[in-house]
Specification:
Strand content: 15-25%
Helix content: 25-40%
Number of domains: 2
Largest sheet: 8 strands, mixed
Structural class: alpha+beta
Number of helices: 15
Length: 404
């Protein structure tokens, strides 16, 4: 028998993908918040019929087979040509380019991915191509996938075309759930650094509501802002309130983004992720192409450059149909060097266990500040005043001086 979280209650062995719930014919699986704020499955023994389907579908208990294990991957940097489309994307617009290319071939295309709910929780939903805007931008919160696998299977069985986007564990879960390959399914997995549990984000938002005296109604965790010299920076958060006010903060000062980038409060399984390696379960992998200007000075990663890793023949056929975007090939190793999560899991912050033990009872902001050193304000001001090109050149000189 395959042993999973449902047996051992080891939170490091559950990604929270919810495939076990979707596959359960008896409706015997519900969810609760674990110690790390993540959603974890729980079997109602009064309803369970002991069929074992929940254990068989678990992507951590048993990974799906690779579609083409010997396929020679190819890596690219990509930007959609439209500045407006790039501005509405987390990075360079790879998702937009892929979805548009598919829709030009299949006008019945449905797109599945993570969206914000009205309750500021994140859900996986399947929407028509024309509603794809809601799937854009990074969410940095665990998404609730209940129901998505069944809905995708239904669409595929009816002959419809589906583009599914998600974290590697979610893509692997879908493949386990479907049990077979579909010509009308296209899979895109994301370069994932790790996800905070839903309850972590809830705590942050609840405190923010009280602090500001107004309800948060919208959050953009990759808000793009132009600096004094016209360069775009995406490491900002924009929060809108019901009273009409809006705040924009640098990711180096905002407690939620700062804690996220410091690896302070990901789910337990993220630090031991079984999918943070070269084996990819999507036809294409997308993410940010950090420090791309080291490979091509004409590209500046602050303005948004996507990385694209082509993993299968189907992914290659799709990539060849992308239009209205700038792209150039890089070595796969260069991409690995700039996205370590394609090789290994995120490192746990030394203060992570302390944070998890305290977050439910103490102030979120103060707790993050006590665990992660906040960027000095004068450094942020100085950084804002200096041109990006000057900073990049200075960094390059320093790296050469250090022999890097």
């Amino acid at each position: 028998m395959i042993e999973t979280f449902l047996d051992n209650k080891d939170t490091s062995s559950c990604s929270g993908c919810a495939a076990c719930s979707d596959v359960c014919m008896a409706g015997a699986i519900g969810f609760y918040y674990g110690r790390d704020g993540g959603r974890y499955p729980q079997i109602d023994t009064q309803k369970c019929i002991s069929c074992g389907a929940c254990r068989k579908v678990c992507p951590i208990g048993k990974k799906p087979d690779l579609i083409e294990p010997n396929y020679e991957k190819k890596a690219y940097a990509l930007m959609v040509e439209s500045p407006e489309l790039r501005e509405r994307s987390a990075s360079g617009g790879a998702f937009e380019a892929i979805a548009t290319a598919l829709h030009s071939q299949y006008d019945d295309l449905m797109v599945a991915g993570a969206v914000w709910g009205d309750d500021l929780r994140v859900y996986h939903r399947i929407v028509p191509f024309d509603e794809r805007e809601s799937l854009k931008k990074s969410k940095y919160v665990q998404s609730n996938c209940e129901g998505i696998y069944k809905e995708v299977r239904r669409r595929l069985s009816e002959g419809g075309h589906v583009l599914f986007t998600g974290t590697p564990c979610q893509v692997a879960a879908l493949r386990n759930f479907l049990k077979k390959e579909y010509d009308n399914l296209f899979l895109v997995d994301l370069v994932c650094h790790g996800v905070p549990g839903e309850d972590i984000f809830r705590k942050y938002i609840e405190e923010l509501n009280k602090k500001r005296g107004s309800q948060v109604i919208k959050v953009d965790l990759r808000h793009k802002v132009k600096d004094l010299y016209g360069e775009i920076h995406s490491k900002n958060i924009c929060i809108e309130f019901s009273n009409g006010k809006t705040i924009v903060e640098s990711g180096k000062r905002n407690p939620y983004l700062h804690g996220f980038t410091a690896g302070l409060f990901y789910k337990d399984s993220c630090y031991d992720c079984k999918f943070a390696n070269k084996d990819r379960y999507g036809d294409i992998t997308v993410g940010d192409y950090w420090r791309i200007q080291e490979l091509n000075p004409e590209y500046v990663d602050y303005s948004g450059v996507s990385c694209v890793l082509v993993n299968t023949s189907k992914g290659r056929q799709l990539f060849n149909k992308l239009e209205k975007c700038e792209q150039f090939e890089t070595s796969v190793d260069a991409l690995y060097k700039r996205n370590s999560q394609l090789l290994s899991p995120a490192k746990m912050n030394p203060k992570r266990e302390y944070f998890i033990s305290k977050y439910k009872t103490e102030s979120f902001d103060k707790l993050v500040d006590s665990c992660v050193k906040k960027e000095k304000m004068y450094k942020l001001i100085l950084s804002a005043l200096l041109p990006g090109k000057f900073k990049r050149n200075a960094k390059r000189v320093l790296q050469k001086a250090k022999g890097k």
